[in-house]
TrEMBL record:
<dbReference type="InterPro" id="IPR008391">
    <property type="entry name" value="AXE1_dom"/>
</dbReference>
<dbReference type="Pfam" id="PF05448">
    <property type="entry name" value="AXE1"/>
</dbReference>
<protein>
    <submittedName>
        <fullName>Acetylxylan esterase</fullName>
    </submittedName>
</protein>
<feature type="domain" description="Acetyl xylan esterase">
    <location>
        <begin position="4"/>
        <end position="320"/>
    </location>
</feature>
<dbReference type="InterPro" id="IPR039069">
    <property type="entry name" value="CE7"/>
</dbReference>
<dbReference type="InterPro" id="IPR029058">
    <property type="entry name" value="AB_hydrolase_fold"/>
</dbReference>
């Protein structure tokens, strides 16, 4: 049964928890991103016949973490000329890049659009994926992605994913039809968490649009929801009782709350008050710590993890029209 799953909205708006941030957070990420850029090669944009007469479509391969190939789609409105603003999209948990015709909305609104595949994902029954994760960790983990390499930040799964996401912005900025000063990042759920990571790691973004973001305020999430995927962490720690401190130390490097404090681009979040997957307090923790003064959050009081769904898009376009011109 749907119900409010967290605190009243008035308390959520004021929720500014202490952050659990490793002392070498910035050094860790600067080194990780620099290493990826040093071994990277130029992105490949290969024309792809998607049977779409109003959209130019390209099959993209770019260098992600450790130079490893990551797939994507690049779509651009066929009727527009010159350099365009570009929206980079990150995908929800378990999903892959899918098929080009599943990503027409941003192009229809007049933007170039790069969709990043998520390594190792894309087999959950909806969007198909095409990017392997060649760095599997042989340590025990709960089925899923949340606990792969959990006890060491160097080997944690989301180190690779977040680095891929930074490099996706680099790839978009390389394309001659993209205005590199007008790049926007967005995504829902896991995609929203990835969006926040990129917002804290990449300079000069034009806007940041995280919807019902996952991967935020991990400890509280494990304490107040029994929904997946956060339950993967609970299951792992229930079993590996001695790994609790090491696990949360690792998660400190990947917490959207910590990335939010470094994010300065204009932003529009969304949150749903009946969302048990990404509880509202975890979303507000990131939003309230988000460093930009130009920020807003859309509250969907009677929705679950679907959030605003299609209702959020017009609000996002309104923000982009204002900040991009």
């Amino acid at each position: 049964m749907d119900m409010l799953v967290d605190w009243p909205l008035e308390r959520l708006r004021d929720y500014l928890p202490d952050r659990d941030e490793p002392a070498d957070f910035d050094e860790f990420w600067a080194d990780t991103v620099q290493q990826a850029r040093e071994v990277g090669t130029p992105a490949l944009f290969e024309p792809y016949d998607a049977r779409l007469s109003t959209m130019e479509v390209y099959d993209v391969t770019f260098s992600g973490f450790a130079g490893q190939p990551v797939r994507g789609w690049f779509l651009i409105p066929a009727h527009l000329d010159g350099r365009l603003p570009c929206v980079v999209t990150y995908i929800g948990y378990g999903g892959g890049r899918g098929l080009p015709h599943e990503w027409l909305t941003w192009g229809a609104a007049g933007y170039a659009h790069l969709v990043m595949d998520t390594r190792g994902q894309g087999s959950n029954g909806y969007f198909v994926g095409d990017t392997p994760d060649p760095d599997p960790v042989g340590l025990p983990h709960t089925p899923g992605f949340m606990t792969r390499g959990l006890t060491d930040p160097q080997s944690y799964y989301y180190r690779r994913v977040f680095t891929d996401a930074v490099r996706a912005v680099d790839a978009a900025r390389e394309h001659p039809r993209v205005d590199p000063d007008r790049v926007v990042v967005t995504g829902a759920s896991q995609g929203g968490g990835i969006t926040l990571a990129v917002a804290g790691l990449v300079d000069g973004l034009a806007a940041v649009l995280p919807d019902v973001p996952f991967l935020c305020h991990y400890r509280r999430a494990t304490e107040i929801t029994d929904a997946m995927p956060y339950q993967e962490l609970v299951t792992y720690l229930k079993t590996h009782r001695g790994d609790v401190d090491a696990a949360f130390r690792t998660l400190g490097y990947f917490d959207g709350v910590n990335f939010a404090t470094r994010a300065t681009a204009p932003t529009l979040f969304s949150v749903a008050l009946m969302d048990a997957v990404c509880p509202p307090s975890t979303v507000f923790a990131a939003y309230n710590h988000y460093a930009a003064t130009d920020k807003d959050i859309t509250v969907w009081p009677y929705n679950g993890h679907e959030g605003g769904a299609g209702w959020q898009f017009p609000r996002q376009v309104e923000l982009l029209r204002r900040v991009l011109g």
